[in-house]
Amino acid sequence: MRFANLNHRGVVVIADRAIDIETASNGRFGSDPAVYADLANHAALADLAAAAEPDDWPDVDPTRLGAPVPNPPKGLGVGLNYRTHAAESGRELPTEPHLFGKTNNCVCGPFDDVIAPAGRHEIDYEAEVVIVFGRSCKGATEANAWSYLAGVMCGQDISDRGEQFRPPIKQFTIAKSYDTFGPTGPYLVTPDEFADRNSLDLKGVVSGEVMQQTNTSDLIFSIPALVVWLSRYMTFGPGDLVWTGTPGGVGEARTPQRFLHDGDIIETTVSGIGTMRNRVVVR
Ligand code: ZN
Fold it and tell me: How far is the CA of 51 from the centre of ligand 1 (A)?
């Protein structure tokens, strides 16, 4: 299934039509998009989708799509999870995942503006796949890891490199959690929709130039491996997000460096999900 937050209401998307969950369920479910982040509701939502006549419902208006999970209980990001990014950063390959927080204020929609604070000149893009937990998860195994996930989305892990690497110690969380620094969307897609859920093409384009291109089969720590490692220490639940890492090609590591400017358009595509398009606004 494909889910979206259309004008602050949860919808199931079939053939680009938006089936409003509250209306189609005659009020059994409310309008809150949180309903589809909970795997406990997926069987009923599948029944609802199967019964729906898409022609009876309106087209999805992309300009009205918000973040599929607008208020995640928690969010984390993985640093250095593709060999190409580790190499361009001049760092050794990690032997276990490195994580930072992405606080929920940073989440914004797939077509929202990314606000670069005036006076900050090292704002950078990171195209990523974001996973969404769908049920309580502690002690997952490689074999059952996917069964805890409600789905996946496109994501950007926007970063203020000046703040991230400010001496004498680094601080990733604040530098990657400014308001609007976590675009996600355009849809939350359930894992069963993919021919191979462990092989998703990911592409990041800035103002028409392809900057990043990879496939999740190149992850150092695969999505199941991340779920296993993280759930060894933390309990996850419906709506929790993990940005799974970015491949090589970030602006900071390019020669010359390519940071984001006012008016840049960041396009982020994951095969089988869709494309986000976020404009950079300096303010
Ligand atoms: Zn990242």
Answer: 39
